Amino acid sequence: MNSAFKNERTIYLGIDGGGSKCKARVVDEKFRVLGSAVAGPANPVHGIEQAIESIQSSAQMALLAAGFEKNDISQVVAGVGLAGVNLPSLYQVMQEWQHPFKRLFLTTDLHIACLGAHGGEEGAVMVAGTGSCGYIYSKNKTAIYGAHGFPAGDKGSGAWLGLEAMKAVLLAQDGLAEATQLTELLSAKLGTKGLGLVEVMVGASPRKYAQLAPLVIEAAEKNDAVAVGIIRDGACYLSMIARKLLADNPARLSLLGGLSERLMPWMDQDVVGRFSSPLDQPEAGAIYFAKKEMEFWRAAL
Amino acid sequence: MNSAFKNERTIYLGIDGGGSKCKARVVDEKFRVLGSAVAGPANPVHGIEQAIESIQSSAQMALLAAGFEKNDISQVVAGVGLAGVNLPSLYQVMQEWQHPFKRLFLTTDLHIACLGAHGGEEGAVMVAGTGSCGYIYSKNKTAIYGAHGFPAGDKGSGAWLGLEAMKAVLLAQDGLAEATQLTELLSAKLGTKGLGLVEVMVGASPRKYAQLAPLVIEAAEKNDAVAVGIIRDGACYLSMIARKLLADNPARLSLLGGLSERLMPWMDQDVVGRFSSPLDQPEAGAIYFAKKEMEFWRAAL
Lengths: 301, 301
What we know:
The structure is a homodimer.
Chain A: H1 3-6, E1 12-17, E2 22-27, E3 33-39, H2 48-65, E4 77-82, H3 88-95, E5 103-108, H4 109-117, E6 123-128, E7 132-137, E8 142-146, H5 158-173, H6 182-190, H7 195-201, H8 206-210, H9 213-221, H10 225-246, E9 253-256, H11 260-263, H12 269-272, H13 282-300
Parallel strand pairs in A: 1-4, 4-5, 6-9
Antiparallel strand pairs in A: 1-2, 2-3, 6-7, 7-8
Helix pairs in contact in A: 4-13, 5-9, 5-10, 9-10
């Protein structure tokens, strides 16, 4: 065992498990970062075993990067934030995992993103990435808006933008809607056209649709009427979510996700004026969460 | 070998292979129905092996029902209409199948539906079922509108109606859109509510979404504003498709598919006045197709 553990200090592990990757961070009691690592997908909605595998391997790599040994995993207090565990059935399955940690505290990806964005304090966040949603966490209220998954939810997200673009291109191809620059942009990106577009997108994942989103923003920035219509519709939904969150007076509100910067100019400017920059990453939020839970647990003894 | 074959008459087999079932019909040269049968799904988009298995077993059952033996399958001339083979890659894979028939003539599900609806003659059809599309087949023009698959295409279809209903219910649940009777109807149908609706519809197939469509029509018939808006939007698309087809003056136009009767009242009435009832089923169209191809092939010898 590494000397760090002999000192009886608590070592914390923060895990941010998402649909494309799993991020891990190891810190000491004073939140000093000792090591970090990234592994594969960890969204239990798309497979419990894969999620567990990604959590374990990212944790072990982060521990090694921090100078610990693999077996030291049994000594760490882990905070784990996962997509999908807002669904009760998945939360329970993940809670039943015979994990290798000293303690595991499980919560949603949104909860840790919020704690990370606001330095462990209360607040609200919105996400505009592959998916979309809003989340507020405070003494008075905890609520999620959206986060219903693609294609029924996730309006204004990258996946939604990509799907709406495909719809518009297919309608124009049939002569049933106005022509759009999106036809050329999507054809160039996907390396095919006409029915070929349908073929390469059959059964496409939200992530694959989201890869088309930058083209929609690009076309809208060039004043393509169809793309502008799509983006405005999506941004209007995001503004509605923001207003819903602001109605409960969160201490801070941050817009997160890969599309946040590019979609912000399309949102209502009174709402955009209320956004604060996120202070840290979700994996830091997972550590704040674990530390608070651990203190609560110790106090209860 | 059965005596029918000793007479050197040609026996025709018509196959209508769709996403939920595969229908087979055996007829003699005068189109007299000798037997028919139904087997499982046969859409090659969802699995080549399953499609082939369903085609073979429906064919064998129809032959047995017609008084032939299993092995007589090697004597029949088969016309096979399949969803998905408008995509060149799937057409080729299916063409490479080492089939058990004397001859196999392959075409699209739309082509055989059109031939069936118009007694083997030229014309146009529209489909409003789990999916949606329009198709015209004439000397001057063969064209498909829609048929792009769910969720990017299939506007106005059962799957699309179900998805739009889910979206509306989830928005209303978040307080981001007006309340709708659909909330109660969907909850009753799916036996759950709130986040439970999301859970049971995660990754749902087009068919599963389409099972919600009758509720949307029901709610619209009760003047639910949200349901009316959804149906009108979908029916408007179907009317546009009809106009597109009518612009090429087809001899006849038929509206097919499980939702045709219930959606017709929502379509533009000038368009509805142009619909003719289908004369026969798609599997009959597959036989018309095979017979014509066989005559063409014999003439070329």
